[in-house]
Amino acid sequence: MLEGASRFMLPIRNHLFRALLILGFCAPLPSLSQQPNLGQPQTNSLQAEMQAAIHQVERIINQPVTAYRRAPGMKVGLFSPGWFHAGATKPNFNTVDIRATQETPYASHEYVTSDLNPGVVFLGRQLEFNSMTKYFYTNRVLPKKKLTEAEMQEINRLYRIIGRCQQQLARSQEREPTSSGASDTAETTPSSAKRPRLVNPYIGGGALVLLSIILIFSYSRRSR
Questions:
Q1: One pLDDT digit (tens) per residue for the chain, 224 residues
Q2: Is 50 exposed, middle or buried (0-12, 13-18, 19+ CB in 10 A)?
Q3: Residue 178 φ then ψ, to 5°
Q4: Which H helix or E strand runs over 76?
């Protein structure tokens, strides 16, 4: 009778053992498809590239303009208060073409000045105003040099670099949860509302396999 029971239990034990082994090997694995966040060296490289482009833009836009001493009899156009209104629009670095927004309101006067520059004049044809470069005006006491076609194309190119770097840095920050945010969430969550931790699938799978081996061994001893 014991031999019959043993023969009856043997297929069941084999199927149970195989099923538990499959369960253990099918435990969820970490996703390999997730894109890693930008490392700190790459983030630093993007920031350095963006700052270099910004400095070059500022250098071109804020080139010095030749000033002349005002002499009696000069016909001078006066701009007041100052050369520019307060504030500035941030350009869309990815799409703007500053050639389309270049203005030359000073060209109608041979000489121009402002209430900020008493006794000094500038040649009106050498000056410009551009709402899409005003964001980088570093000294608003002086007028801005009229940029050439080549200079405006170079600024367009540098703007694209700035826009690309800003987008890549923003995407990296969105994918990277801040430690302070995680800490704040933990502190504001009541301890009674915290969910119990689930057993690690790798430890749980191994425990199931080990348990199955023990059960099979136990049944084998009883059937003898």
A1: 445 545 545 555 565 556 555 555 444 544 444 444 567 888 999 999 999 999 999 999 999 999 999 999 999 999 999 999 999 999 999 999 999 999 999 999 999 999 999 999 999 999 999 999 999 999 999 999 999 999 999 999 999 999 999 999 999 888 765 544 444 443 443 343 444 444 454 555 565 556 666 656 555 555 55
A2: buried
A3: -80, 140
A4: strand 76-79
Q: 113 pairs with which residues across the strands?
A: 78
pTM of the model: 0.63
Q: Are 111 and 121 a contacting pair, CB within 8 Å?
A: yes
What angle is formed at CA 48 by the lines to CA 46 and CA 52, rounded to 5 degrees? 120
How far apart are alpha carbons 23 and 17 in whole angstroms? Answer: 10
Cα 22-26-28 angle, rounded to 5 deg: 160
Q: Is 98 exposed, middle or buried (0-12, 13-18, 19+ CB in 10 A)?
A: buried
